[in-house]
Each structure stands twice: as C-alpha cells, then as structure tokens.
Design the sequence.
C-alpha cells in the first residue's frame, strides 16, 4: 500500500482505516453488492480524468468567445455540458463572474459540496473546519491567507452551496493576454481561481 | 440537526492551510472509501440526503477530528448496517456470515462511465407557482429540527432578498427521512454580511444561499 505521503491528520489512522476498508470491500464484493472493476473505474475517473483542467477549459472559452460567456452565465449546466463536462456533483451548475465590483468565492458550510464535473474532487482544505467555518463570517480574512486582497469598497460575495446547485467562479481575465489562444489562456486558470480563493495567473507567472 | 456539520460562523479552528501540490487521494484506502460510497449509493438503498445525515450523526467529537474520508467511510458502514445489508460483525471480519440482502441494482463496470457522466439530477416537476420572485424580502424561519436540514443555523431568523427563483428541487428534509422527495421551489437568497454578522462586517459583502421555499417567510 502506498503510505509514502505523510499527512498529519490521517497518519495515525492509516493502519486502522486500511484494515476496515479492505474488510468492507471484500465483504461487499462477496455479497455481490459491488463490482470491483466498477470501483477501479470510479477511482480512475476522479484521480486521472476529471479535474480542474475541465473548468480551465470552460473559463478560457468564456474569455475567448463572448457568445459562449453569455450562455455560460445564463445557463451554466447546458453551456458546460456542451464541452463534454457533466455528471455527478455538476448536475446543476451556476457560473458566477468576478468583475471590478464583485469578487465571488464558494464554500459548503454544511459538508463538502463542490463542482466535481469541472474541478474534480475537493482538496482537503476546502472540506476542513477552518475553511467551512470562516468563509462566511470572515471571507476577507480567509482570502488574505490565500494571498488575495479585495478592496474594502468591492463586494465579496460568498456562495454557500447548501443545495444541489454547484458554483464555478469565472475569474477576471488577466491583462496582457489579448491575442492568446484558448489553450494559452487555460494555462492561467488555477483551481483556486475557480473556487474564488485565488486569481487567474498573470502572463509573467506562467512564463517564468 | 444542530450538529457538528453546521460549521458556518464557528470560530477557533485556526487558519486555512492549503497543501502545495496536493494529491487527489492521500492513501489507497481513501480511494476505496470514495469508490465504495459511490457504488453503494448507486444501489438505491438510500439517497444522498440520508447519507449526509448519516455523516452528521457520527458524534460531534468524531466529526470534528476525523478526516473527511473517514467520515464518509464510517457513515457508509453505518448505512449498510442500518439498512440490513450486512452486520457489524461481518464488516469487522470482512467475511459474509449471512445471505446477501436483496438490492435494487449493482453498478457494473460497463455502466460506470455513463452513470458517473449522468449524475443524479434533483430538479423535479411541480404544479403551481413559486411564492416568491426576485426582489422579494424574506426571512429565514427559526427551526431546530433533530433530523436533517439544509438551512444553516447562521441564517435562521435572518432577513434577505430573493436573488433568483430556481426550479423545484428534491426537498432534503423529507428525503433524508425516507418520506419522499416532496419537491419544493428553490431560491438563491442574498443576505447582507451585516445582517448575518453585525456591524463589524463589511457593508459591501453578501452571502448567497440556496433556500427551499419552506425555509422562508415573507416580510
């Protein structure tokens, strides 16, 4: 088993959890409730196929194509599905646009709701108590820990995804990218910029 | 339930600490815990709201200190036992001691890609018209149910404005109890940060939350 990664929160639990999960998997397979090959496909899908590159494609297309952007903001689910991204935890999508007046950020205070179809599975910090507790009461403090400063006279708009609506932030397009292709633009779009805890990278940050 | 899952506005958990170059999973058991949760969810023995309630009901100290996949996995064990699919003794030993219970369906490898790509939409048809329209002033009701709800404590008795009227969605409060989907109109409601957190909050800031119609009253 690969235990090479030292993760403080889980470290002491690893042997116990390994045993419990192996035992349950064997039992559920023996009882015929799960197909082990299906489990492998689920893992492979979220480990290797679905991830923030999907969302970056959506954002880069919106930056490049005004008609697509309009559609995306009006009907996020359909516009995202048109690029082939759909499914679990992305059934009902709303895309929220960062502007000079508004900075959006997304949280789920009640669990870990996250737009899997465009961002993949959420990082640990997104599911953690510090983020879930503070994103709504102290969004500017959280943003500053991510290195993002929002001017006092600009609105910070937090989306608490308590229902089955899932949110994707459309970050502002960085300056100095006027003639860039969609592929070049997609390289500027970070996962955090689509959660709202980051900004899109500047051209300098990717060329260095 | 006023449980440990309802974290909005709690204090004292410290800073948010992102992990650089974080892997999707931190151990092999996490992969299996996630995949087993998805595959067992597909059997249709319980719904997503019931599984969220199972995670919320693991005990406050456990919820706060366990990793998220440990929460998922422990809730899965609980659901399996509660629904009579296996006993705790069988789960501990990893060997079947009783005949398998009948289940609605099994996720096959062949169907998995299309099942994942389809997901589980929750928009439903509903007769009649929504009670509220964008711009209406509303107040979140003050309820403290012991069962599952998706109305966070920090919103209760707080006033907001309807930002957007959405479709009718499955109502988690009844669905988690196995009392049916009972679709209700869903709204995006805009709350001022100062209404939620007092005068210390930035007057420009807002929190937008999706609320089902039964969570709201007109003011």
Sequence:
């Amino acid at each position: 088993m690969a235990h090479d990664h030292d993760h403080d929160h889980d470290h002491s639990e690893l042997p116990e959890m390994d045993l419990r999960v192996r035992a349950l998997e064997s039992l559920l397979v023996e009882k015929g409730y799960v197909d082990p090959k299906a489990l492998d496909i689920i893992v492979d899908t979220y480990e290797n196929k679905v991830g923030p590159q999907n969302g970056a494609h959506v954002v880069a297309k919106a930056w490049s194509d005004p008609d697509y952007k309009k559609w995306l903001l009006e009907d996020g689910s359909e516009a995202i599905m048109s690029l082939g991204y759909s499914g679990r935890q992305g059934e009902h999508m709303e895309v929220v646009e960062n502007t000079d007046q508004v900075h959006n950020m997304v949280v789920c205070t009640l669990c870990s709701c996250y737009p899997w179809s465009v961002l993949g599975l959420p990082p640990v910090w997104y599911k953690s108590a510090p983020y879930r507790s503070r994103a709504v009461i102290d969004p500017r403090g959280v943003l500053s820990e991510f290195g993002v400063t929002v001017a006092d006279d600009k609105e910070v708009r937090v989306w608490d995804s308590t229902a089955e609506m899932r949110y994707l932030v459309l970050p502002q397009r960085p300056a100095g990218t006027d003639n860039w292709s969609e592929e070049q633009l997609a390289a500027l779009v970070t996962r955090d910029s689509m959660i709202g805890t980051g900004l899109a990278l500047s051209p300098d940050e990717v060329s260095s | 339930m006023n449980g440990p899952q309802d974290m909005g506005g709690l204090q004292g958990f410290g800073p948010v600490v992102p992990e650089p170059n974080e892997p999707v999973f931190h151990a092999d058991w996490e992969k299996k815990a996630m995949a087993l949760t998805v595959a067992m969810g597909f059997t249709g023995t319980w719904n997503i709201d019931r599984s969220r309630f199972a995670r919320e009901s693991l005990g406050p100290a456990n919820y706060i200190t366990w990793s998220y996949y440990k929460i998922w996995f422990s809730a899965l064990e609980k659901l399996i036992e509660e629904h009579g699919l296996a006993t705790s003794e069988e789960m501990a030993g990893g060997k079947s001691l009783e005949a398998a219970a009948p289940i609605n369906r099994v996720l096959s490898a062949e169907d998995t890609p299309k099942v994942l790509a389809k997901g589980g939409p929750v928009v439903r048809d509903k007769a009649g018209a929504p009670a509220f329209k964008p711009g209406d002033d509303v107040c979140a009701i003050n309820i403290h149910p012991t069962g599952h709800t998706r109305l966070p404590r920090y919103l209760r008795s707080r006033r907001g404005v309807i930002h957007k009227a959405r479709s009718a969605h499955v109502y988690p409060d009844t669905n988690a109890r196995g009392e049916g989907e009972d679709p209700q109109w869903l709204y995006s409601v805009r709350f001022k940060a100062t209404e939620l957190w007092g005068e210390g909050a930035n007057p420009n800031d807002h929190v937008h939350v999706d609320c089902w119609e039964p969570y709201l009253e007109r003011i």
In short: The longest strand of chain B covers residues 159-169. The mean pLDDT of chain B is 97. The helical segments of chain B are 28-42, 48-56, 60-65, 68-82, 88-93, 112-118, 172-175, 193-197.
